[in-house]
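Why does this matter for the project? Reviewers at the last site visit asked to see concrete outputs rather than summary tables. In response, this paragraph embeds two records directly. Each consists of the residue sequence and, immediately after it, the corresponding structure tokens. Nothing has been edited or filtered.
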Amino acid sequence: MTENTTKPVSVYAEANPNPESMKFVLNSVLLGEGGSVDYPSVESAAESPFAQELFNFDYVSRVFIASNFVTVTKNTPIAWAQLIPELRTFIKSYVEAGGPIFLGTPTTSTAASAAAEVPSDLSAEDTEISQKVIDLLENYVRPAVEQDGGNITFRSYKDGVVTVNLQGSCSGCPSATVTLKAGIENLLKRMVPQVQEVVAEGVVL
């Protein structure tokens, strides 16, 4: 008789600053370390059967997947206390059954991919500043944002303005603008004097 050595999957829910999002943390890996994917709609989640299944819950409006957690954003006034048991049971059962998280290799957001997107026609100074900003975001900002169930990626640097993209629980979070200005902007201004302002795509201040 062969003993089943499959490790049981545990899932626990963890609140974050966005009241419309909930972070579900697992004791197993969903995505390679350092990468993340953000699906704002079921159409965008074509590469992830796992995310598509989550979108089958009619109150799920966004799915963000990182190393060992998935952040779910809801579009209903129903309290999380009523939704968590159902989602936790589904996630646990799906992962334990070996359901596919992705079809092939997902398109992830990482510092490396951000660096690759830095336009080649920038001046040498702007290219150097962009790289400094990317390094700071990856090493100091991203780990803290990920703790809250979200992600931040570099988009561009021009004329003293850094543009970033907020994903997961950070998207639509009431405190995102405070974090952006009081936290991230102050850090970058202090570490990179050329930076005058930090703005986020799609976030109106």
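We now turn to the second protein, recorded in exactly the same manner.
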Amino acid sequence: MSASTTTSTTTGREAPLRVAVIVGSVREGRQGRAVTDWFLGAAAGHDDLSFDVVDLADLDLPLVMPGWGGTPAPETVAALAGVSPRLAAADAFIVVTPEYNHSFPAALKNFVDWHHPEWQAKPVGFVSYGGLAGGIRAVEQLRLVFAELHATTVRDSVSLHGPWSGLGEDGAPRDAAVCEGAAKGMLGQLAWWGRALRTARAARPYQG
């Protein structure tokens, strides 16, 4: 390996991990953006991570997809052009999701389905909220979805219980110490997998 290649590889490995944070709720009166802001505050000390917030409320992706091998409508192509490169550039993902009827929002599934190679061989962490279960049932279903897309979900997640009683008006959890500890644990796992998989993809492109 040449000196220039060694330097390039080392620089790439030491560069901050690019983490796309996906706000998965679009409903009126949602808590998703407030929860995301709290999480980003809790993660502020991780200088080795660079966050890019992808808010699904800012996107307009249709529910109807083109036939196999077909071409999306021009307005859909334009919408994807603004977000797909950001997913492709990400080294890892964090999905912020509520739980609706024991599952995750339809808008989130639609967004996930509009992409495929962007998820492959990258780690995914979760921040969930909702009811007594804290959204963990939504997370368990999302793990199945991302496994099909060849992504690696990290074991630990952040679950905020009772969005009306467990969260303050600013979206921050009332049991801040416990939730911040959970965020630290999840981010540690995400960072480990993010670096390992980034190095692996650079050495040998993933064939899904």
